[in-house]
Model the fold of this input.
Amino acid sequence: MLQTTFVLAFREIRRHILRSFLTLLGIVIGVFSVITMVTLGNGATEAIRTSIASLGSDVLQIRPGQNAGPGGGNGEVPPPFDPADVEAIREQISGVTAVTGLAQTQGSAIRNAQNWSTTISGTTNGYFIAQKWALSKGRQFSPGEEQAGKSVCVIGQTIVDNLFKGIDPVGQNFRIKGISCSVVGVLEARGQGNFGNDQDDTVIMPIKAVQRQMTGNQDIRAIMVGLNPEYDAATIRKSITGLLRERRGLGSDKADDFNVLDAKQISDTVSGTVNILTMLVGGVAGVSLLVGGIGIMNIMLVSVTERTREIGIRLAIGALSHEVLLQFLVEAIVLSCLGGITGMVLALMACVIAAPLMGLPFLFDVQINALSFLFSAQIGVVFGYFPARRAARLNPIEALRYD
Done:
C-alpha cells in the first residue's frame, strides 16, 4: 500500500509541475539560505582563528583601554604606557622571552614616482622575537641604531611590491612621512591578518626614531610580550596585570584601565561574535522554511478541493480514511523533501564557489545539512497534516455530489 501511495503522490506532482515547483520554492530558498549562511559563517570563524593564530600563540598584547566589565566605564581616557613600563615588565616578570613597546602612526611612503600609504611601527628587535617574525632579506636593527633612533627600517612585502618592484630594497632609501629612511631588512610575507588587514603592509623603525621624528612624544600605545611556553600564560598575565596596576596607581576599588590579551582570547572573542551573528542570520533565514510550509499547506488545501470527487470515489469503493490521509500526507512530505534536497545541492554549489571568492575555507558541515533536510521533511508533516486530515474526513456522498 505504501508503494502505491508514493506512486500516486509522484503522479500528482508530475501532473502539476509548475504548481509543484512554486510550492517547494519556499522550502528550497529556506534550506539554501540556512546552509549557505551557516557554512560561510563557519568558514569565516575558521579564517579568523587561523589569522589570529598567525600572530603567535605565545604573545601577549597589552593596550591602554577601559575595562569593559562592571565599573569600567567612567568616561576618562586611559593614559598610554611609557618606556619605564616596558622596562619594569622586562626586569620584574619571569617567563618572558621578549618585551617591546610599540608606537604607531600612519604615513605615506614615497620613492621616485611611487606613493603608498602605510602603517609605521616604532619598536625594537624584541618585536621580531615576540611575533616570531623572521626576515627574508637583510638584518634587524643594530644596538647603535636602536639607541640613537636612526632612520632605518624593516619593511613588509607589500611595501616591496609597491615601491621596489624588480629591485632589491635592502640598502635603498625612500621617504616615509617626510623623513628619509634606509631599508636594512625585509620581513617574510604573512598575507592577510585578522579582520582582513594586510600584515605585510608595514614599515618598522626604531621606536626612538618614530617618537622623536613623527609622534613627538614618548607615548607607547601597545606592549608586546613574548612568552616562554614552559611557563603558565595565565600566571604571567596575572603578574603583569598586578605590576601595571601598581605602576598606574589603581586602587582595589578601581577597574583596570588597560587590557592584557593573548591570541587565544582574541580568537575566542571574535569567533564567538561571528558564531552569534551566524546563528542569528541562520535563524532569520530559517523563517523562510516556515513560509514554505505555509505555501505547502495552501496548495494542498487547493488540491483537496480540486480532487474532492476523486476522494469521494475512492472512499465509496472501499478506501479507508487513513489511506486517504496517508496519500495526501505523503504528497506534502515528498514536496518538502524534494525542496530540501534541491536547497542542499544549490547551497553546496554556492558555498564551493563563494568561499574562495571571499577568501574563506570551505567547511562542509554534515550536521547543519542533515538538520536542514530533516526540518524540511518535518515541515511537510506539520503543514501537510491539516489538508490530509480534511481530505480523509470528507463524506463520500457529499464528495461525489461536489461539482
